[in-house]
Every structure is written in C-alpha cells, then in structure tokens.
Amino acid sequence: MKTIGIVGCGAIGKALLRAVENGKLSVGVAGVTSRTESSAREFLAAFSRPPAYLSLKNLIDSADMIVEAAGGAVVASLAEQVFAAGKDLMVI
User: Fold this and answer.
1) Using one digit for the tens of pLDDT, what is the confidence trace for 69-92?
2) 75 and 15 in contact (C-beta within 8 Å)?
3) Alpha-carbon distance 37 to 55, whole Å?
4) How far from 91 is each of 39, 41, 42, CA to CA, in Å?
5) Is 79 helix (H, G, I), strand (E, B) or coil?
6) Reduced to 3 states, what is the DSSP secondary structure of residue 90?
7) What is the DSSP letter of 44?
8) What is the Cα–Cα distance from 90 to 69, expressed in whole angstroms?
9) Other C-beta atoms within 10 Å of 34: how many?
C-alpha cells in the first residue's frame, strides 16, 4: 500500500485524514507535519490509530508521496525538498 505524508493540518489536511480513517481513501498515512504543531497533535490524538507527527524531513523520508495541504506559500520550497529526495508531490 502506498503511503502519503500530509503537509498541513488545516481544513484540507483534516479532511484527508478523516477520509483515510473512514476508509474512503485507501492509502496509508506515513505522518503529518504542520506549522502549528500543538493543534495538529491535538487533532491527531482523536483518531483511533493516529498518524505520527513528524518533522518535514522525516515525513519526506517516510512517505511514498507528499500531499501539500498547507497553502501556496510553501509550494516552491516544499517541491524542492520533495523532488530532491526523489519523491512525488501532490499540490492541492
């Protein structure tokens, strides 16, 4: 099973995580990172099997594909890091 790493834990990131939790999205979640770690960790704790909160580097290393759900301001920098690691990036 392919794994995704989610960058951003706002409305889109949360919707992706709920879809995985409810079986509507058939992927594994390698982890999540967000600029607001405390609120992301609080949200993740509500899941029956919460994904790990990881640093961006560890997230990129751990996932097959990175999903950007953090907003356009991070795309250029994120793309550089993800592509340098030989991984795929989905920008939402």
Assistant:
1) 999 899 999 999 999 999 999 999
2) no
3) 10
4) 22, 22, 24
5) helix
6) strand
7) H
8) 9
9) 21
